[in-house]
Amino acid sequence: MGKPAWMTGIGAVVVVAVIVGAAIWRYQFLANNPCIASPSAVVFAPPFQKNEGFAYVAPMPGLQDKSDSSDAPARSPIILCEGDRLLGPSHSVHDDIRTLGNGRYSHWTNYLLFSTSDNSDPNINNRKYTTHIFNATQ
Question: What are phi and psi of 58, to 5 degrees?
Fold first, then answer.
């Protein structure tokens, strides 16, 4: 026996609602994700220097005036992305990057000390790493 007409109508409404909801989520994700299509993106390519524990080093020459320091431990406007995923927390304590990892990073003087989202080796995990200069007015 077939389904009553009202059940078929509800099913169609649910399908449309799911499709519209997914489209809205995707638009908001793309519009609000600083890792997607940023004009300030700088791609980092391996090899990355192994530091200690889960930490790796990527050079960042020319940005020392914007880096974190002892006097300004949260000054850096740099954000780090692994593909389209924003890593962090930024401005992490270096020992936490080394021992805990999981995407923590710090822009310090002329380098970026970072860990991957899953503590894998960024030299062989086939992921793209980019930095972006975060601007609160973007």
Answer: -125, 130
Question: Which residues have a Cβ under 8 Å from the Cβ of 112 and sit 6 or more positions away?
Answer: 44, 57, 58, 59, 60, 78, 80, 105, 106, 131
Q: Give the pLDDT confidence of 80-126 residue by residue, as tens digits.
A: 999 989 999 999 999 999 999 999 999 999 999 999 999 999 999 99
E strands along the chain, which residues? 42-44, 49-50, 56-59, 78-82, 85-86, 105-108, 111-114, 129-133
96 in Cβ contact with 104 (< 8 Å):
yes
Q: Which residue has the tokens 């509800």?
A: 10
Cβ contact 68:74 at 8 Å: yes
Give the 3-state secondary structure of residue 58: strand
What are the tens digits of pLDDT across the range 13-72?
A: 565 555 544 444 444 444 567 787 666 788 888 999 999 999 999 998 888 899 999 999
